[in-house]
# Entry
Amino acid sequence: MKYVILLGDGMADVRINELCGKTPLQYASTPNMDFLAANGKIGTVKTVPDGFPPGSDVANLSVMGYDPREYYTGRSPLEAVSMGVDLQDGDVAFRCNLVTLSGPGKYEDKTMVDYSSDEITTSEAKELITEIDARLSNKNIHFYPGISYRHLLVWKGGPVGSQLTPPHDISGRLIAEYLPKGEGSGTLLLLMTESNIILPEHPVNLYRIKQGLRPATSLWFWGQGKKPAIPKFSEKYGLTGSVISAVDLIKGIGICAGLEVIEVEGATGNIHTNFRGKAMAAIKELKKGKDFVYIHVEAPDEAGHRGELENKVIAIEAVDMILGELLQGLSQFDGYKIMLLPDHPTPISTRTHSSNPVPVAIYSKGENNDNKNTDYSEESAEQSSFKITMGHELMDYFVRS
# Structure
């Protein structure tokens, strides 16, 4: 038996007037998703436990079968694992975004213009983080370049109790009330304000401005934590597997779980990614003998955070295309099960995550439940009696039911 999970990050949403009162999932053309819902099983799963922030870190841990209440230590340590940064005991990792803040004036009076600096390229970002590390690091603090706007600060002996806000939660807002608070906040705020002096004058940013692109004008810290320790997926479920994603967070969870990370050429984590390549890579892994593949697609979430309604619909239709390629490729195997879901909703109206349950569809080869007039959508899922209230139990159901 082969097992595949296709996760469209942030696909779920709410009804939108511009879409004639439909959600993006209802509005998009998704014949392959609808096939799963009509012939397999559809329902809801609560991926974010009560009391936890509705982040992709928490939600994807749940979907992969790990209870966040037991294994969650923060987002950044998982990204550090993927980036090859070896955290030592006592090290605290922080996500370090390159963001665009509004222009001159006091730092605290600025506005969060763009949490991704116009999705700055990885090569440009590397130059900026290298400069930041050269000028702001010390014996206890170091910076590490990642992908696009997503980078890492490692603080030896640093605090885990800082009160920090993800920048994608405050798009368009004054930053004053969201600046670091609590333990270590003075050091973090100093690094942010110093970066706002260094970065705007860097040649990379001056060039971006000439090209009509937003410059990366400041660092922004969030998602701190210490090195995680989670059981191997193969020991937990008796399956060998791979992870396919352009995002360090998902790669890091996969590495911690003992899954092989597969790199796909052209995979970017945004709308301009190699969607079809992810499907082809998954089938290749299964043909090589892997039992399980976890495919993560970031594009719907990015569109949600940026308030780009058209791009969210396009991204959902691209996920459906991936699903179609998977169904065709999986037909060569004697048996398979495939599961489709978001990790959390990212409503266009709020441009941030919510902790609401998400629609999940599960289909086995040859299954025909004849769920007439059932599509893959939030509404169809809510109307179903199939509900999983503890997200980490979903994987057990998927593999063992």
Q: What stands out?
A: Residues 82-225 form one domain. Residues 309-330 form the longest helix (22 residues). The mean pLDDT is 96.
